[in-house]
Design a protein that fits this description.
heterodimer, A: about 150 residues, alpha+beta, Alpha-Beta Plaits, 2 domains, elongated, B: about 425 residues, mainly alpha, two-stranded antiparallel sheet, 8 strands, globular
């Protein structure tokens, strides 16, 4: 809060100050009436809004060159998750190429608060939130439970 | 009393003006539902409503103009709800009063100067269909006065005050009949606010009545066409600058728009007096408010900005005495050769006057909208303080000052005329 000061006579008469206020709004009115230059709105969905690369959106699972997931089912993401929305069932890799892998990896998007702590916790760079997907919508609630296929299909 | 052909024509013209004026007002009020939202949006650097479109022409949105059609359709298909314990008759009556009262005010507003028709007399026998009802009568078009006003009451201003103070009943009944404490609070606020500001509103206009010496609106507007010092149009805003500011402020309070929208006060008492209204009744309240908005713009333009007057232009010609400019239509050589040319020029002048009037009204509608979206709502004690402790004394001072001014003007006018030589 600033210091409270005595109002000058011109300010107490009030009409001049109102007039100054009207000038400000009238200036915005005429600028936007003819040019729309001050308007910051993006006409989504016709115009896409540029997203920062750091923007945290829908999850995805990173893949190795052979197409398997990088996730080793270490459970760090599930442990750190404050919303407890990551459900992993770990298993042994069938042909022993890798030691451990997630048999199922489900992200409950309803619970997720998009804090990004799973991404920070992951030692293998497997779970990422860089899909930049703004149109994450579905026709039924089950589709918001992202299983392994959906997470890797990106 | 037998109706003559002249009377019939006057009557038909009156009915035509009813259709024209109410058509224009209701169209403008319909547009205002969109203008208000769009205007507030672009003043606040937003875009505003622009999504409504007709499927037939995709992406043809016309800056959201289809919202004018979409909104009433939506509102009329809502449930018409009357709360339990409400007085059903009064609850239904209130929105009707709120809409009809402001609409009836346009009856006394002149929207163009009178037009003298000097053409020729037409015998009843020569008029097809209608003439048969008036055997032996004549239509005196050689000397016929067309007034562009629905009713030229000689108590015009008093009529406006008498009718506009009825608007409080709509607001009061709405709050009282709703059986809702928020509604009741809103209507209580409305009652005290509107009655307080009615005093200031009435006193602010007394100066105008003194200066122009008339309460008839057509006379006031005609006298505003006179020139002061031979060059300054004697508009109300020039003779009564303080009266104009007071009238505008009181008028804004009277039509319950922000910064005086305490009766609605959506952040405090939901929607005030029309909390319990839905569907068409809610639409009527909203529409009544928009019509009141236009009424204020119209009355301010009529009383303080010369109504239909275009400066220096009249049906006789153009005249600025101080600069020795005088141009009479009847002296033009072209007019003297063609007898009907004068009439055509005068009709053109009337068209120009209507245009000037519409421009003035639209300007004030815009200005009131601008004020409404610029200033925040007053606190309740501030409103009462301003009404009784600022507006009322200032209006009284204004009346006294006007009296002194009239006295001085009467004594100094001959001297000034001699000095300036007009």
């Amino acid at each position: 809060m600033g210091q409270k000061r005595e109002l000058t006579l011109l300010e107490r008469i009030y009409f001049w100050e109102i007039f100054k206020g009207l000038l400000v709004t009238a200036r915005h009115f005429f600028i936007n009436l003819f040019t729309q230059r001050e308007i910051q709105t993006f006409q989504w969905p016709e115009v896409e809004r540029p997203i920062s690369p750091r923007w945290r959106g829908r999850h995805r699972l990173n893949k190795r060159e052979d197409g398997t997931t990088k996730c080793t089912a270490c459970m760090l993401c599930a442990t750190v998750c404050p919303s407890e929305c990551i459900h992993i069932v770990a298993g042994e890799f069938p042909d022993k190429r890798y030691e451990k892998y997630p048999v199922s990896y489900v992200v409950d998007s309803f619970r997720c608060c998009y804090c990004g702590m799973c991404v920070e916790a992951c030692p293998c760079n497997a779970i990422l939130m860089d899909t930049q997907d703004m149109r994450f919508c579905a026709e039924s609630p089950e589709q918001f439970f992202l299983d392994k296929e959906k997470l890797m299909d990106w | 009393m037998r109706l003559t052909l002249d009377d019939t024509l006057h009557l038909l013209l009156g009915l035509a003006w009813v259709a024209v004026v109410f058509g224009a007002v209701l169209t403008l009020a319909g547009f205002l539902t969109w203008v208000e939202r769009k205007m507030s949006a672009i003043m606040q650097d937003r875009i505003g409503p622009n999504r409504a479109n007709i499927r037939l022409f995709r992406n043809w949105r016309m800056f959201g103009l289809f919202h004018i059609m979409a909104d009433p359709v939506k509102l009329f298909f809502k449930e018409d709800f009357i709360p339990a314990g409400a007085n059903r008759v009064l609850h239904t009556l209130a929105p009707m009063i709120s809409l009809v009262v402001p609409l009836s005010l346009f009856a006394v507003i002149p929207f163009a100067g009178p037009l003298h028709v000097h053409w020729k007399d037409i015998a009843a026998a020569q008029i097809p269909y209608v003439g048969g009802f008036f055997p032996g009568d004549t239509l005196h078009l050689s000397d016929f006065l067309v007034t562009f006003q629905i009713a030229d009451l000689n108590v015009g201003i008093l009529f406006i005050f008498a009718i506009s103070s009825l608007a409080i009943y709509g607001t009061m009944l709405a709050g009282w009949a709703s059986n809702n404490k928020f509604s009741f609070l809103g209507s209580m606020r409305a009652a005290s606010q509107m009655i307080s500001y009615e005093v200031g509103l009435g006193l602010a206009v007394v100066g105008i009545i003194m200066i122009y010496g008339a309460v008839s609106l057509s006379t006031i507007v005609t006298r505003q066409g006179e020139l002061w010092l031979g060059i300054i149009p004697k508009w109300g805003v020039i003779t009564q600058p303080l009266g104009f500011l007071l009238f505008l402020a009181c008028g804004m309070a009277e039509i319950k728009r922000a910064p005086f929208d305490l009766p609605e006060g959506e952040s405090e008492i939901i929607a005030g007096f029309f909390t319990e209204y839905s569907s068409a009744k809610m639409t009527m309240f909203m529409f009544g408010e928009f019509v009141e908005w236009i009424v204020l713009g119209t009355v301010v333009a009529t009383l303080f900005f010369g109504g239909w007057q275009v400066p220096y232009l009249s049906s006789e010609g153009i005249a600025i005495p101080l600069l020795k400019i005088e141009l009479l239509w009847s002296q033009l050589s072209y007019v003297q050769q063609h007898p009907l040319a004068l009439q055509l020029i005068q009709i053109g002048v009337v068209k120009l006057q209507v245009a000037a009037f519409v421009v003035k009204v639209l300007f004030f509608v815009w200005l009131i909208g601008l004020i409404r979206w610029t200033l925040p709502r007053f606190r309740y004690d501030q409103i009462m303080k301003m009404g009784w402790k600022m507006v009322l004394p200032l209006a009284l001072i204004n009346i006294m000052g006007t009296g002194v001014f009239i006295l001085l003007e009467q004594n100094l006018k001959p001297i000034l005329q001699k000095v300036l030589g007009y």
